[in-house]
Amino acid sequence: MTQITRGTWAEAGTSLDFKTGNWRSTQRPVHIHAKAPCHAACPAGEDQQAWFAELQLGHAEDAWRSLVAANPLPGVTGRVCPHPCESACNRVQLDGALAIHNVERWLGDEAVAQGWDYPVAAPADNAPVVAIVGAGPGGLSAAYHCVRLGMRAEIFEALPEAGGLLRSAIPPTRLPRAALDAELNRLLDLPGITLNLRQRLGRDISVDDLRERFSAVLLSPGCEMPKHWSVKGAVPADLHEGLALLRDFMDHGALPEAAKGDVIVHGGGNTAMDICRIMKRAGAKSVTLITASGLPGPNTAPDDLINVVPRELEEALEEGIEIIDHATVSRLIMKGSRVTGVEIVALKKEKGKDGRKRRVEFEGTERVISVDMVVPCVGEQVSPEAFEGLLDGAYFWPDNPHGRIGERVFAIGDARGSRGTVAAAIGDGRIAAEAVAAELAGEADPVTDARPEMGFDGLNTAYYAGSARVPVAKLPVPERTFDAEIEGGISRAEALAEAQRCLSCGNCLACDNCWTMCPDNAVIKTVEMASDGSHYVFDYDYCKGCGLCTEECPTGFIQSVPETS
Amino acid sequence: MREALEGSLAIARAVALTKPDVVAAYPITPQTHIVENISKLVADGDMHTEFVSVESEFSAASVVLGAAAAGARAYTASASQGILLMSEVMFNIAGLRVPLVMTIANRAVGGPLSIWNDQSDSMAVRDAGWIQLHCISNQEAVDTTIQAFRIAQETDLPVAVCMDGFVLTHTMEVIDIPSQDEVDAFLPPFEFAGALDTANPRSMGTLVDPNYFPEVRHSHHAAMGKALAKIEEIDEAFAEVIGRASGGLLTVDGPKKAKVGIIAMGSVVGTMMAGREHYGGEVGEARIVKLRSYRPFPAKALRAAVKGLDKVIVIDRAISPGMGGVLGTEVSAVLSTLDKAPKVFNYALGLGGRDIPETMYRDLLTTIEAKDAPRFAVFDADLEKLPPEDR
Amino acid sequence: MAKTDTSKRLNELRMKHGRPPASPSEPKAEKPDTLREAQPRFRGLESGHRACQGCGEALAARLVMESAGPDVMVANATGCLEVFTTPWPQSAWRVPWIHSLFENSAAVASGMEAAMKAKGKNTKILSFGGDGATYDIGFQSLSGMLERHHNVLYVTYDNEAYMNTGIQRSSSTPHAATTTTSPAGKERMGKRHLKKDLLSIIAAHHIPYAASASVAYPQDLQRKVRYAMGVEGPTFLVIHSPCPLGWRHDSALTIEVARRAVQCGLFPLVELERGALTNIMPIREPRPVRDYLELQGRFAHLFNEKDYRAQEELDHLQALADHNMDIYGLRGDGLDPVDSTGMSHVRRGGPLMEGR
Q: pLDDT category, A222, cuts 50, 70, 90?
């Protein structure tokens, strides 16, 4: 029995005997790692928040290592990616998205300059060997991830050089060849990767053959064949399809004679934009893009936005490219077999009876434009030879996220049919490699990151200092040539400063807010990182469940969940 | 050293001898001369103490509470309204078992305003849980003040030393002030086991729920009971060092065969003794019981002191309107357990400073001879001074 | 000599409060047993106290103790803080602490300080009280303590009503707020009178340092505590401490409510030395008082659109906030890392402006 002290004094700190934790009735705070929206939006599967966290501490190499755990080609994607991460960035609603793209490029270039080693070990001699068809971004990513996961990779490439469309379809103004080669070569030099050039599927090798000789086969052939284009059956005799035009130009540096006049480009992707700009730069009198999608603005729904890197769109407009959006070519006006004009008509995606959206042309909006050349740029498909039995129409269309289209056979990148970016191909390469590793180990397919996404409403923005996005230099229009890189880089100081702008959405910022503001001393700071990745643990013996830490957590990492028994 | 000193100065000197760390006080008649003299001793460097000149008695009591709680020997003094303003703190000091000493220069409590002596103030804080010692002379007040510091720290109880305002505080007497060496030999340095200490950081003044509160009160009451022996023991110890006792719990003076007794506290005891000398032959010699320890109340000693008496006159210097005298009521209660309890006559005297002449002895003894003698009265009230309806 | 004593003493205290030795004969600090013991801050106010969920006062006291301890003693007035920390036989305090009465903590602290002086000790005395104990009933003893120039830091936890007794109005209750003794009704719109401008009265004592702080700005609060701790003489801190129960807001919103109080100008954060205004927390983007009031049930009657008096009172409170802006010059001019916006900012690893 407790005996009374004379004067009823109490010993110091004895309130610890009283566990106020049982006051919690409805909610308790927990640490929930949510996906930052940049990460959720990244087709390559990068966790930008994670590598920005390293950069915030000034650890550039660690940031790069964290980055290349998903994407081995940051110097490439940091130049060519449409960066959906930035569109998704919660900071958009404060003072502009983080310049994730530019920092990624800086990290990629810095790794090359500093010679940082990829975080992979040489695979064992008896490691399983995976055959990879195509040395484009998807194939290279797959090879890298195979090695990262302890396997070997043997790449078969039809062309004399690796790089795929990075080399064949992306102008050096966006991706200087030196930058491309530097990163590619470092990757290809990794132990465990063998590159076989001039090996065309169907001519030199076959899928069945590969399947027999290798532990698994990853198909990353890309889309080489332009989709058929005609306007109500009419096709000009001197048709130049966009991607082919682009390849020819990059190989030979010349364009057809008609390209000196008024040019119409019909389509809406990055290739269309690239071809517009190259033709304009090469001396076309005018270049007009006709696109069914919309330009950014109040009249355009997010799913109807032109699928072009925003920066590229901006630069194209600077360079004098005309764009007619929400329109399509409805008729070709021919003089003989030569096109002299096009009739265009306004259209838009509208919901139909079944609720699905379809394109509706608006009668009465037709107009005729006289032109010297029409360049269709409506996409490409897989060359069907050598893939008999594997294709579903023009593409592979796998029915699973890992790209599995047969036993130990996976499809990667544009050839899957649902892709369209370098980043997506890189992501496919990783996912397929992971699935292969699991399959070979007799395990189930890896599950994709199922964490919830941290939206803007989950943040407490009172804790973020305003700071403007780093300005990035651009070549002035008159100085733009066919191979000078238009967009400039950023400095180390700028990269580190930009990193400080990261809100760390859904992840611990180690800001001490919870530790500082708990009225009940129920947040304990740990010297070592706690197992959940933060520096704090909740002492549920004393936490009363007031919810204050949840409210004041800047990043939404602390959330209140219903109290269970 | 024997000197002719005003009571207040003598008390100041006595306090200085106990070397208090902290003194806090607020001026009020008739206590003022005590604190003025302490201030002067401090100012002259004759007393090394933190003198805190507070803005109210309430703060005076609070300051000494804080000081003693922090391990300092602390002293304050007050009277009348000041005691009432202190009363909330007084209960607190005692309840927290904080040992410190206060002089109460007894004075009436208004309204109407009266600055003169009676004991209404100390009576009003009777239940605050303090030890209350009453003095009949300035010598006793000096000695009791010194003893009070030792009683306080040996019992963990605060001690109030009561001395009648003006009658003692403002009266010159020849007083023997002990030497510093004597006081040092008698009074050990201040020690309070419950004091606040950064090396052992306890919390004082907690919230105590009904599961423990009765036990807390019991322990306080028990501590008071144990203090009875301490008060006697320390008085004896004082006598050993200094050669003079102050009368323990109570002293009995007068013929063993006396049939009438007088029980009183404070300077009126001296008046009664003088009256007995003058009028004893005329009205008989009463046994006079000088009650020194009012709290704790020495019930056992009092029962022994009245042995053989038929009648007892209890003099009260305060009144509980609607009941009568407070001391008288308590004495009646204590004596009621005796087989042959003397008859108790309880008279309030000298309220608000009304002079108590030596003839009062004669008047009291004469009054109780009458068959219809009242058992309680404001004895010296002249009812002619009241309108009939207020008598 | 004195220095050796001090360091020895500090060591003793560290042993006592930070990393207790395994046994008295082994005065070497052991590795702490628990994460709690290893916390890199002084836990002057420990867990297990009975404050309500989201209590601003408990938070404020915890922050004060971290910055003030361990070589301090506390005199605590009656009130929530006292009651919820020390239900016998337990105490949440880890420094010597005493509660005496409602209205005397400044006087008790005076006595403790006098005792320290008499004994030649440097232990600083803190005196704590709520707004009732400070603005009202203990005002006199506080004034006395300041006038006598005791070396005491007085902290008032201002939750703007008598919360411990069930939300009755005090002289610190803001104009128009409802409490159980200033309810809104047909004849009344909450409290009729104004919040007492205590800080000006305190500053008029010509003391070395008096300041206001808010739980919404812990770094600022703790800087002020540390500054006051370094001052020899009386210092005073009033801390705006929301009471979820009394102000009727969600317990999770304690900081948000306090932040808005500062940002709208109703609770200015200022520092006064010897009566002169020496520092303010500038307000970057003043928020309308409405933003602050709308979070709290005690002002709900001001949002009754059918009551013509509601808008008048809203305008009155806005005018009071604007008045504060003017007399203290609170309006910031541009980006300032220590203004009402900048002081909140964090970066990875902690506050952006630690202890500025």
A: confident
Asked if A202 and A233 sit in the same domain, the reply is: no
- What residues of chain C lie within 8 A of the CB of A541, using their CB? 47
Count of CB atoms within 10 A of residue C74's CB?
A: 33
- SS3 string, A97-122, reads CCCHHHHHHHHHHHHHHHCCCCCCCC
CATH of the domain at A477: 1.10.1060.10
Q: Which of A214, A208, A106, A174 is nearest to A440 (CA)?
A: A214
Residues A259 and A359 in one domain: yes
If asked whether residues A104 and A205 sit together in one domain, one would say no
What pLDDT, on a 0 to 100 scale, did the predictor assign at position A260?
Answer: 87
The alpha carbon of residue A561 is apart from the nearest alpha carbon of chain C, in Å, by 13
Whether A235 and A363 map to the same domain: the answer is yes
Selected residues 47-76 of chain C with any CB under 8 Å from a CB in chain A: 47-51, 53-56, 58-59, 62-63
- Chain B residue with CA closest to C16: the answer is B199
Q: What is the pLDDT of residues C343-354, one digit of tens each?
A: 999 999 888 865
Residues A302 and A398 in one domain: no
Question: Nearest C-alpha of chain A: how many angstroms from C176?
Answer: 27
- Encode pLDDT of A396-441 as tens digits: 888 888 999 988 999 999 888 877 889 999 999 999 999 999 999 9
pLDDT at C19 over 80: no
Q: Is residue A316 part of a domain?
A: yes
Kindly report the nearest CA distance between residue B30 and chain C, in angstroms. Answer: 23
Kindly state whether residues A254 and A267 are assigned to the same domain: yes
* pLDDT per position as a tens digit, B297-317: 999 999 999 999 999 999 999
Q: What's the number of domains chain A is made of?
A: 4
Instruction: Give CATH for domain C39-345.
Output: 3.40.50.970
Are A358 and A245 within one domain?
yes
CB contact under 8 A, C39 and A525: yes
Q: Which of C275, C279, C273, C259 is nearest to C340 (CA)?
A: C259
Sequence-ordered alpha helix ranges (H) in A9-99: 37-41, 48-56, 60-68, 74-80, 84-88
Residue A61's alpha-carbon distances to A39, A352, A503, in angstroms, are 19, 52, 21
> Which domains does chain B possess?
2-242 (3.40.50.970), 250-390 (3.40.50.920)
Beta bridge pairs of residue C164: none
Q: Nearest residue of C to residue B195 by CA position?
A: C96
Q: Does A252 touch chain B (CB under 8 A)?
A: no
Which of these, C200, C196, C195, lies nearest to C272 by C-alpha position?
C200
Picking from A378, A399, A432, the residue at the C-terminal end of a domain is A378
* pLDDT at A342 > cutoff 60: yes
Residue A484: give the domain boundaries: 37-118+454-499
Q: Is the pLDDT of residue C13 over 70?
A: no
Report how far apart the first and last C-alpha atoms of chain B are (Å, whole number): 51
Are B204 and A9 inside 8 Å of each other by CB? yes
CATH code of the domain containing A243: 3.50.50.60
Give the count of alpha carbons within 13 A of B203, CB side only.
27
Please indicate, yes or no, whether residues A112 and A71 belong to a single structural domain of this protein. Answer: yes
A463, two tokens: 């804790």
Which of A4, A6, A14, A15 to probe by mutation at the C interface, max C CB count within 10 Å?
Answer: A15
Domain range list for chain C: 39-345
With 50 as the cut, is the pLDDT of residue A48 above it? Answer: yes
Which of C72, C88, C100 lies at the smallest CB-CB distance from B92? C100
Q: What pLDDT score was predicted for residue A246?
A: 83
Residue C115 to residue B92, Cβ atoms within 8 A: no
Residue in B closest to A12 by C-alpha = B202
Residues 248-307 of A with CB under 8 A from C: none
Q: Is the minimum CB–CB distance between B89 and chain C shorter than 8 Å? A: yes
With an 8 Å Cβ cutoff, the interface of chain B facing chain A consists of: 96-98, 156, 193-194, 200-206, 208, 212, 215-216, 219
User: Is the per-residue pLDDT at A248 higher than 90?
Assistant: no
With a threshold of 0.90, tell me whether the complex ipTM lies above it.
yes
Residues of A in Cβ contact (< 8 Å) with B96? 7-8
Of the candidates B98, B156, B216, the beta carbon closest to that of A4 is on B216
CA distance B71 to B92: 17
